[in-house]
Amino acid sequence: MMDIEKAIEIISRKTTIPNEGESFSDIEEAYKIATASMQKDVYKTCEYGNGFYPCPNCGESTTEDCVNAGRCSSCGQAIIH
Fold first, then answer.
1. How many domains does the chain have?
2. What is the reported pTM?
3. For 54, which DSSP code?
4. Which one, out of 25, 32, 42, 53, has a CA that is 20 to 30 A from the CA of 68?
């Protein structure tokens, strides 16, 4: 699994041509990591149930405080209710 710093380095080069020691699958993985990160910034709605708001991304139960803060405390998903 590629780390976030490596993904940032690959995407920052603004090319899809791999450097020496990299492959096209490395480029693809970097873009998948970036896409997953950006998707967490798109607000998703939490539905209240059983005293908690389950995160629509990871399913962890979040509290009113997390919803008011706008982020899941487990995965960082942007959330609203």
1. 1
2. 0.69
3. E
4. 32
